[in-house]
Design a protein that fits this description.
single chain, 350 residues, alpha/beta, Rossmann fold, Dihydrodipicolinate Reductase, domain 2, eight-stranded mixed β-sheet, six-stranded parallel β-sheet, globular
Length: 350
């Protein structure tokens, strides 16, 4: 099969990561860039060698210039682009979170299923060796039944960060804050390790001073999983310097496994590993992992899986439906905080 012709919709910072990752792969090529800002679309296309630039995603999808797209728009704009791509028979890799609303996420997944396209959501951290080790250890029964888990995102986002794009820090254009934009990565890992969540109790708050954001910068939650295991979620963007992302799981045999990304942007390592007979491996793994690259290498691995799934006519490793799971937990935290009540999962799709 010839190279998959890829278009990028939304030419902001994360789009540059995807374009760089794509340039290292033989399976695809950047064929088009699209942004509502024509100057930005043209500059992006010129920088990364795309022959076509658009200001309208529908026009790009109908042009015949692309076989697949990567969606890098603000979160509330994901759904219309993905649905339009599905209806045009164009495959989609969508940035996290899949959407800002669970109902829209289901609409996206259903449109992709009807069209028979490959639809994947970006959770590149699943490709970290440290995450793969934990997932494999769980599958192999090395921790026994999981009993407890923790998802922690202690980060710093300055006022300048929120000012860098007009959509940041607002419910209407970002769909949420620390949970929706940052902690979604650890929430995804958390549920990937722990299994389906069935109940969530949460609280969120905006605790920083100033009126430059209206979304949450601090959140906590407890989670009950279908297995009976319990878990906690902590997320904040008010901690300077941040302590990064960390997900920890504990098993009924007393063993613990953890993955920690610190500083943020560096590949995560297994900072705790007490599985019987394997304790001495942790330091060796940590050195191996710290010697490997971070961004955009793992975006590259997920993008490669996406392109190969198109070529091989198979589901991607992180299918669109996977993206719904973390979003549903986050939406449940928001709802629980507003009402003061526990939220049962799955939530109503209305």
């Amino acid at each position: 099969m010839s190279k998959v012709r890829v278009g990028i919709v939304g030419c902001g910072n994360i789009a540059k990561t995807h374009a760089t990752a794509l340039s290292a792969l033989s399976e695809g090529e950047l064929a088009a860039a699209c942004d509502v800002d024509e100057a930005r679309a043209r500059a992006f296309a010129a920088q990364f060698g795309a022959p076509n630039a658009y200001t309208d995603a529908d026009a790009m999808l109908k042009s015949g210039a692309v076989d697949a797209i990567i969606v890098c728009t603000p979160h509330p704009l994901h759904a219309p682009v993905v649905v339009a791509a599905a209806e045009a028979g164009v495959h989609v890799l969508c940035e996290k979170p899949i959407s800002d609303k669970v109902s829209e996420a289901y609409r996206m997944a259903e449109a992709a299923d009807r069209a028979g396209i490959v639809f994947s959501v970006v959770f590149q951290r699943r490709w970290w060796p440290a995450c793969q080790r934990i997932r494999q250890a769980i599958d192999d029964g090395k921790l026994g039944r999981l009993t407890l888990g923790e998802s922690v995102s202690k980060l710093w986002r300055s006022q300048e960060y929120f000012a860098s794009d007009a959509w940041r820090g607002k419910w209407a254009t970002e769909g949420g804050g620390a949970l929706m934009n940052q902690a979604v990565h650890t929430v995804d890992m958390f549920q990937w390790f722990m299994g389906p969540a069935v109940e969530v109790v949460g609280r969120w708050a905006k605790l920083r001073t100033g009126d430059y954001i209206d979304v949450e910068d601090t959140a906590v939650a407890t989670v009950v999983f279908a297995s009976g295991a319990l878990g906690t979620i902590l997320a904040a963007t008010t901690i300077n310097p941040g302590f990064g992302f960390r997900v920890t799981v504990h098993g009924e045999n007393g063993a613990t496994a953890s993955v920690w990304e610190n500083p943020e942007g560096q590949q995560g390592v297994n900072d705790v590993w007490t599985i019987p007979g394997e304790e001495s491996l942790r330091a060796e793994w940590e050195q191996e992992d710290r010697d490997k690259p971070g961004f955009p290498y793992f975006h590259q691995l997920q993008l490669q899986d996406f392109l190969q799934a198109i070529r091989d006519n198979r589901p991607p490793a992180v299918a669109g439906a996977e993206g719904i799971k973390s979003l549903e937990i986050i939406e449940a935290i928001y709802h629980s905080s507003r009402t003061g009540d526990p939220v049962s999962l799955p939530m109503a799709r209305a």
